[in-house]
Amino acid sequence: MKPSFNLCFLGFGNVNRTLVRLLADRQAELRDRHGISYRFTGIASRSLGWIADPDGLDQAALCGAGAPARENSRPDLTVNVNTTAQNVRDWLAAAHADVLFEATSLNVQTGQPAVDHIRAALEHGAHAITANKGPIVHAYRELRDFAADRGRRFLFESTVMDGVPIFSLFDQLPAIHLKGFHGILNSTTNVILSEMETGLAFDEALKKAQALGIAETDATHDIDGWDAAVKTAALVAVLMDVPIRLEEIAREGIRGLTPQALRNAKRDGWPFKLVCRAQRVGDGVKASVAPEKVLATSPMAKISGTSSYIYFETDIFPGLAITEENPGLYATAYGMVADFVRAAAR
Question: Would you call 134 helix, strand, or coil by DSSP?
Answer without folding.
Answer: helix
